[in-house]
Amino acid sequence: MSHSSKAMDLSAYRQMVQETLQRLQLDKRTPQALYAPIRYTLEQEGAKRVRPVLALLMQAFLRPEAPLVASPAVALEVFHNFTLLHDDVMDNSPVRRGKPSVYAKYGLTPAILSGDAMLILAYQMLTEEVSPEMLSDLMRDFNRMATLVMEGQQLDLEYERLDSVSKEQYLEMVGYKTAVLIATATRFGAILSKVDAEQVEHAYNFGWNLGIAFQLQDDYLDLYGDSETFGKPLGGDILEGKKTILHTLAYATASQAQRQALTGAMRRPNEQADEKISKVKALYDEMKVAIQVQTLVRDYLAEAQKALESLEAFTGREATSLRAFVSKLAERNT
After folding, report:
1. How far is it, in rounded angstroms, from Cα 203 to Cα 191?
2. CA neighbours within 13 Å on the CB side: how many for 285?
3. Band (3; pLDDT cuts 50, 70, 90)
4. Against a cut of 0.70, is the pTM above it?
5. Between helices 108-126 and 132-159, what is the axis angle to 10°?
6. CB atoms within 10 A of CB 318
7. What CA–CA distance (Å, rounded) separates 125 from 144?
8. Residue-wise pLDDT tens digits, 147-204
9. CA gap 115, 152 in Å, rounded
10. How confident is the model at residue 5 (pLDDT cuts 50, 70, 90)?
């Protein structure tokens, strides 16, 4: 189902995503033991729908006279949520978006099986509303993205067992695990707008840099955010041993004594969770890591803006909605 691309606010784009998800009719499919966890995941209130909204915003900007094509964009949202179901299993996470995770609410087997079903649903949605010649490009990019996300997840798991990772290793990992999905969303928007290859590449670069900034901010909020607005307890990355940008920058700038103290704090048992988080945070504060991360976020947002300026030069129009989206992301606390 196509939609008008006349100027809309973000809530209207999110509503379009919701309407497309409702066409899956998950409440009517059987067995419900398979589809109820999917519905629980996809219908949670407050979901930002970052990826499909970006794809739709890019379409509306690049080709405002054409109807919006929602289904391939929403396929990315379904895929993203599939990865979250399996991430929560791997991380043993009891909470997702401030509510019990599927893993906690339904159990291990449903989280795995329903996640698998979501992946299939994503592929089904990818094939809707598009011509065969356009589908080949979308399918190629979707498969490349999916492969990189899995590689990024594996690197993330491997890095948990190391005392430290380099900034380059970290950026590669989050590029694969997070940025490539957002970049594929903006690329989808360009492909569906039928612009030339150069503009598709600018759209991808915009999404890639935006995605890196998004993950850096997520790392920051995990420790320095507000637990109520963030939707889960603070310091979870520390307890899971994740080598976030906070840890990476701290280790790179620390003295030998600080490195030893940080390694010792990260190796503390999780039974001492509060003390462990407090000790690591104190070391981060000592090294002014929070300031370094916010500087890096601004750097990547600036690169995203440069790519957007190239698209604006091509169209001769200002990407008002996309610029507002970037500003909103830079200021987010959830």
Report:
1. 9
2. 8
3. low
4. yes
5. 150
6. 12
7. 17
8. 999 999 999 989 988 888 999 999 999 999 999 999 999 999 999 999 999 999 999 9
9. 18
10. very low
DSSP three-state, residue 2: strand
Question: Which helix (H) or strand (E) covers residue 7, if one does?
Answer: none
Give me 242's structure tokens: 């994740």
Among 139-143, 158-162, 228-232, 268-272, the minimum mean pLDDT is found in: 228-232
User: Using alpha carbons only, what angle is made at residue 261 by residues 258 and 262, rounded to the nearest 5 degrees?
Assistant: 85
Vertex 226 angle, CA 221 and 232, to 5°: 80
> Around Cβ 278, how many Cβ atoms within 10 Å?
14
Helix (H) or strand (E) holding 69: strand 68-69
Q: Residue written as tokens 């929070």?
A: 290
The two tokens of residue 159 are 């890095």
Query: At residue 149, what is the residue type?
Result: V
131 exposed, middle or buried (CB, 10 Å; 0-12, 13-18, 19+)? exposed
Kindly write down the DSSP assignment for every residue of 248-272, as one continuous string. Answer: HHHHHH--HHHHHHHHHHHTS-GGG
> CB under 8 Å to 220, separation ≥6 — which residues?
245, 246, 290, 293, 294, 297
Partners of 99 in beta bridges: 96
Residue 124's alpha-carbon distances to 42, 71, 258, 307, 315, in angstroms, are 16, 9, 51, 31, 32
Distances (CA, A) of 261 to 202, 280, 284: 43, 9, 11
Output the six-digit token pair for 307: 């790519």
CA distance 103 to 95: 9
- Count of CB atoms within 10 A of residue 214's CB? 23
- Quick one: tokens of 211? 């995605």
Q: What is the DSSP string of 96-122?
A: ETTEE-HHHHH-HHHHHHHHHHHHHHH
